[in-house]
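Order emerges. One example.
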Amino acid sequence: MYETRSALSGRIRVIDGVRERRLIVAGDTLSVMPLDGDWSRVRDEYWWHALAMVPLPPRPSVLLIGLGGGTQIHLLGKLAQPRAISVIERDPAILRIARDWFGLAAIGGVEYLCGNAESVIPSLAGARRRFDYIMEDAAYADEPERSRGLALSAASLVAPGGVLVLNRHLRTDAAGLVTLMRSRFARVTQRRVRRGGENVLICCAVPANATAVVGGLSG
């Protein structure tokens, strides 16, 4: 359907199958979109699991770190009805393709922040922005140093009653990251998306700073 090359992401392809459209970047599938509008077929994929595994407040504020084709933006509209969505995406080419080929141009009210997450997150923290639901999908299969640094930065943006979900590769940094995040959150759980698969979702809830505030109020 469409192909281009980006200095940041390499080869980018949009491919249509019989029932779905896929965004392929450097050989990996970053997003899917059903061509017939039936999103129920995505139930077994990590985008759906990342929302289904956590309790969300009504109309949450959302931050997505890593856009891909925007699969989770579509799912959020169906499963959570957020009041606001912000997205960090480093590659302008990915953002254009998501809008042109994956239906995001028709979805209003989304704040797109184009830049490296390592630069954008401190700006959001400095502005005291906080989010009820954060999905960090930008460091999958990265080296532990970047994986852990980005996760800790994202943790600073979680609202007191919010959650942070991290998508990681089973054989890179998933186990070490679970241990690290337990120093920042009272509840940290993990879920392997598929038996035999490599995606591990790490859910971090009840930030330590929120626990301290509650303890101070109750004392």
